[in-house]
Amino acid sequence: MDIFDVITLGGGLAFFLYGMNQLGAGLEKVSGGRMEKMLEKLTSNVVKSVLLGLIVTAAIQSSSATTVIVVGLVNAGILKLRNAVGVIMGANIGTTVTAQILRLGGNEDSPNLVMQFLNPKALAPMIAIAGIIMIMVAKRNKFKDIGSILVGFGILFQGMFIMEGAVSGLKDVPEFQQLFVSLQNPILGVLVGAVVTGIIQSSSASVGILQALSSTGAITFSAAFPIIMGQNIGTCVTPLLASIGANKNAKRAAMVHLYFNIIGTVLFLIAVYSLQYLILPGGFSFWNDAIYKDGIANFHTLFNVVCTLLFMPFAGLFAKLAEFTVRGSSKSADRPDEDVAVLDDRLLVSPSLALEQCQATVVKMGEYASYNFRESMKLFHKYDSKAVERIREFEDSIDRMEDRLGNYLLKLTDRELTDHESKDVTQILHIISEFERVGDYSINLMELAHQMYEQGIKFSDKAYKELDAIGEACGEIIQMALVSYRDTDLTLAKKVEPLEETIDIMVETLKYKHIERLKNGKCTIEAGINFLESLTNLERISDHCSNIGVYIIGHNFDRDTLNRHEYLKAMHKGDSEDYAQDIEEFKQKYYVRIQ
């Protein structure tokens, strides 16, 4: 084996890793991120958790990626450590799928023509051809994604064939055979498997390399068993690195993954070597025989399935062991900024899941803005310094969320996003700006109330009743905008603009009436100025809620945004019967109260 064979081996590994990544990315796109979202929502018991971990990992072709997502969800407080244990166990089974696919390469000597066609050396190129045709010809992204899956499948096997070709000459090299004789030492074999897997950070890839080397016939069952077990330990490196900088529960999730594989390896080593040398007469008959792809794939699967079934009843003990190792409180106070904790960079590996957390943060922004508005309006009647302090705290949180969301979405755009995910990013960027402005105008109202309190200014009873009426209308429009975004409620979003126009009419009416009161000396200049400024802030708040409604409607029609002015112009003309009816209902609810 010369330098060119080494280069070829490296190139084959590159093809293998790229194909596996392409296959997993395509499967994730086709799933629309639904599998990752299931991790968040359907982990109520250990059996469900194991099944979900298995399904997700089989789809994205990486137990490391699944465990990193789990670490991110635990860090964000979305997934409990106890529930994460089952997902991690299931991920270990899911990662065996790649090796089982690669074992198909053993059908080349079959006399059956159908089996020869099913052999990857014939099947992989045909699948890759079909995939590239779909990518080049298909118009819909869904079919292009399916094409990417097929191409990834073809590249995966091509990488395997290249690696097999590069190492084929080793079967006649005595030193190579002697190397694997030395690896029959279980401790050494485990270490080699762990180190190699830790370096390339993929147990599927390291098992694939082992399967390629098995084509030389130099690897025996006794040498392969400890290597395979070590590969499961090596795959823990990625989640351990991902947990750096995370909270204690996230670190514990990564430690659960490590403990699962270490304890499983120790127990399996004891069981296998006890059977071989102490219990079975003469030991396993195949112990010194050459192992090939199917044997490697089967033992890899057997190890992970048995360990999972054995440890499932003890999921709680694994969580306690991790808690014992990583000491400290598991409460959310462990996070430096609770408001944006769900925006964990570890979740960026799954854009759909990251976007879901962004949307949850936007909803929280809206809730804080709505709270600040309601509390600010109360201050006009009864000033409360503690309430003011609380309002300022919420405003600081809104500002933090806006800043963190902007940076997080910028990182997300560096990922490969689907068209729908790109539109979601655009919508979120619009919505966070609108809710932030609602929060700002609520602060303006709070400051006006503070100014009136400091100067001893009071509104007339009539002015207070008018302010309450339009304040309730503004409170409702904020809630309508928030709920329509949270629930993707198009019907409710279409009601935002009629209420906004009603508020505009109320503002114009109240300005006129208040100016008349000023002229007639029924109101002081200072109170009049504060009242008019309050109306201006209320009008601006309703405008931003109107923008949110338009963005939601535009997003529903699969557009980045509507031509807002054209849309509003059409609505104000009365082109919609529902629009005119909604305005009449809101007038009866609010406008009649100021006449």
Describe what you observe in this structure:
By secondary structure, this protein is an all-alpha fold. Helix content is 77%, strand content 0%. It has 25 helices and no strands. Helix 12 runs antiparallel to helix 13 and helix 20 runs antiparallel to helix 23. It is elongated and about 110 Å long. About 1% of the residues have low confidence.
User: Helix- and strand-based class?
Assistant: mainly alpha
Low-confidence stretches: 330-337
User: Strand tally, please?
Assistant: 0
> What is the string of helix and strand elements?
HHHHHHHHHHHHHHHHHHHHHHHHH
Query: What's the overall geometry?
Result: elongated
Largest sheet, described in full? none
Q: What is the percentage of strand-forming residues?
A: under 5%
The percentage helix is over 70%
- Amino-to-carboxy terminus distance: 94 Å
From the alpha carbons, calculate the radius of gyration and give it in angstroms: 32 Å
Q: How would you state the average pLDDT, rounded?
A: 84
- Helix count equals 25
